[in-house]
Amino acid sequence: MKKILQNTFNRLRHWQKRAAIANDELHILPYRGYGTPERLHLSARVLEYRNIHPHIADGAWRNALNMYRRFESDEVPNCALRLQIAHHSCTLHTDQEGYANAEIQLNMPLPLSPKRYWYDTHWTLQETTNPQTTAATGEVFIPHGDIQYGLITDIDDTVLKTCGIKTKMLYYTFFKNAYSRLAFAGTAPLYWAWRKGDTGQRVNPIFYVSNSPSNLYDMLSDFMQHNDLPKGPICLRDIVLPTSEKIAAYQEHKYNTIVKILHTFPQWQFVLVGDSGERDADIYTEIAHIFPHRIKAIYIRSVADPARNERVRRVLEQCETCETLLFDDSLAAIQHSANIGLAQTRWIDAIAAQQQHQPKHAAWEDWIDTY
């Protein structure tokens, strides 16, 4: 009976996919990739068209509708996608969740040029019967040049305020958007300080690695641009049910992604940034132990939970292979970074000034903490 139901479901999904293709109702969402001139890590997703057009003036209910559309997304499996970048092209197929993931070895390396770090990727749906084929343009990050170190950072409660309190976190997620969500005070100049490094002229690459669901990709990308954060690949994960056979792999998403980045760029050292609300400190110190000469420093932003902060403090104290810091605000992080040669002291005044004039959420929103 289970097999019959599964086969029926597969036939319905196949019919639905064909109908969507025929009506040109599909949307290709390319994610920012990364790699070297010879090897690229690329991914995209094929979804039924979701009609999401966020605007800075959107109110709570428009934001909630857009968020519903993000999570109600209907993925399209078994689609053939043609990928082209520079002289290289290949065909990929989406999996059951609509993802097309690829690690591509180029037959000719991409040509590097000064101050060019992003290259266009062109994705085309092969199966459409319409004259206007479904297509999208993405980007792949090829860092090179005057690099002191790479930076790998979490997003939620590290860059983006989510407050850790479930009721407030849900409120921010569903009733606010990329333009009304807040970054922590001083975050933008802090990350630019890390980007520019010890000389102020570096081009240190930044990778955003988070356990946030990939459904939020467009919102997070818009948030980073709106808050003037340095551009970098955004590596998110899929949503899975607790009973899914994939749950173990998704629980290790952050660890596996960081290790992949370290293997992709074996010539660099890295700085890891996270928060005390999750397992960032445990994951980062484990990586520092496994790769003892690859991690220069670990920075953990403290959340408003003394017990968690104390546990994280003990975890960091046991790390003997690199510098560590549990910090309360961006000013403490930049001061420590300047002291150990990761950034210039000139950023200290800029961060202090921004912290004094940081916008805040409306006062009435504080009541959400009590529920």
3D architecture notes:
With 371 residues, this protein is an alpha/beta fold. The chain folds into two domains: 2-141, Immunoglobulin-like (Sandwich), CATH 2.60.40; 150-370, HAD superfamily/HAD-like (Rossmann fold), CATH 3.40.50. Helices cover 33% and strands 24% of the residues. It is built from eleven helices and 13 strands. It has helices at residues 2-22, 60-71, 166-175, 187-196, 217-226, 247-251, 253-264, 280-290, 306-317, 330-339, 347-356; strands spanning 26-35, 39-48, 80-85, 88-93, 99-105, 118-125, 135-141, 150-153, 206-213, 234-237, 270-275, 295-301, 323-327. It has a seven-stranded mixed β-sheet with strand order 4-3-6-7-1-2-5. A six-stranded parallel β-sheet has the order 10-9-8-11-12-13, sandwiched between helices. α9 (306-317) links the parallel β12 and β13. α4 packs antiparallel against α11 (347-356) and α10 (330-339) runs antiparallel to α11. It starts with a helix and ends in a 15-residue tail after the last helix.
Descriptors for this entry?
371 residues; alpha/beta; Immunoglobulin-like; Rossmann fold; 2 domains; seven-stranded mixed β-sheet; six-stranded parallel β-sheet; 11 helices; 13 strands; 33% helix; 24% strand; globular; disordered C terminus
